[in-house]
């Protein structure tokens, strides 16, 4: 029986829109290959009210991989209607993962089209326009996301949910060692406060390497990374546990700061 991409995608989309969860896709609708999984994910573009804002990379750190129990990175689409400005307040309703992830974000100046041979890091960075700061707030449509598996997570848009995009970084960043760049985050709520540190090297060794990984992952499956799109490269620290009433602030030093709040 032919794999029914649309039917499986309908189940995941309905769960996302209603805030419900599923144990998993029916056996005959579970993607077995990354090709099938990305094909299911791609149906999001037709459902979205606007063209995709870009891409996210899930599980680029050991902490991120452990959080959803996968062996390596996964790509997902950033939906434009789920992008928010620095300082925004997001709802915690239906957010079962309840974490915020502090990330480096690249804005593409030139499109990168699929080709047979992999793109080098230098080629990828030559297509980047600007650096931004971001906070991703993932979520899952699976009741037990630690056992959903990589293919179902890809189909489920790599745990995409909400995303905060900060201002464009004005400080010179191309010559900086982003792998060694230190990031400090503070979470403050009604009756608690904690801090956490991170570094760019937690993102596949370097956020630039993560971006190159995404470019080549998309190229394998015939997908163009388009000019004007953003790529958020994954959490540079252990995901921040959040709850209603929390304010999150991430300090990237000379590169800037970004923050958001969480309420019901």
Automatic annotation (TrEMBL):
SUPFAM superfamilies referenced in this protein's UniProt entry, alphabetically: FAH
GO CC annotation: cytoplasm
Regions that span the bilayer: none
Claim: DNA-binding is one of the keywords in the record: no
Keyword Hydrolase part of the UniProt annotation: yes
Domain of life: Bacteria
InterPro entries: Fumarylacetoacetase_C_sf, Hydratase-Decarb/MhpD_sf
GO MF assignments: 2-oxopent-4-enoate hydratase activity; hydrolase activity
Keywords: Hydrolase
Protein name: Fumarylacetoacetate (FAA) hydrolase family protein
């Amino acid at each position: 029986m032919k794999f029914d991409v649309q039917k499986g995608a309908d189940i995941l989309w309905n769960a996302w829109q209603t805030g419900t969860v599923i144990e998993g896709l029916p056996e005959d609708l579970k993607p077995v290959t990354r090709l099938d999984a990305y094909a299911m994910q791609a149906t999001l573009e037709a459902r979205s009210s606007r063209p995709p804002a870009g891409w996210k990379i899930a599980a680029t750190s050991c902490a991120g991989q452990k959080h959803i129990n996968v062996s390596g990175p996964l790509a997902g689409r950033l939906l434009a209607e789920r992008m928010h400005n620095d300082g925004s307040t997001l709802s915690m309703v239906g957010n079962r993962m309840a974490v915020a992830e502090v990330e480096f974000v690249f804005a593409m100046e030139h499109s990168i089209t699929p080709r047979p041979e992999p793109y080098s890091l230098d080629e990828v960075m030559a297509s980047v326009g600007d650096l931004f700061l971001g906070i991703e707030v993932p979520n899952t449509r699976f009741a037990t996301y630690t056992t959903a598996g990589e293919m179902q997570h890809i189909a489920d848009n790599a745990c995409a949910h909400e995303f905060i995009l900060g201002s464009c970084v004005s400080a010179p960043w191309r010559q900086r060692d982003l792998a060694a760049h230190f990031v400090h985050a503070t979470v403050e709520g009604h009756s608690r406060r904690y801090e956490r540190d991170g570094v760019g090297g937690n993102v596949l060794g370097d956020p630039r390497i993560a971006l190159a990984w995404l470019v080549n992952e998309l190229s394998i499956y015939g997908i163009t990374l388009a000019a004007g799109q953003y790529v958020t490269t994954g959490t540079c620290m252990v995901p921040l546990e959040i709850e209603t009433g929390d304010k999150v602030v991430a300090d990237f030093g000379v590169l800037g700061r970004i923050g958001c709040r969480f309420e019901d």
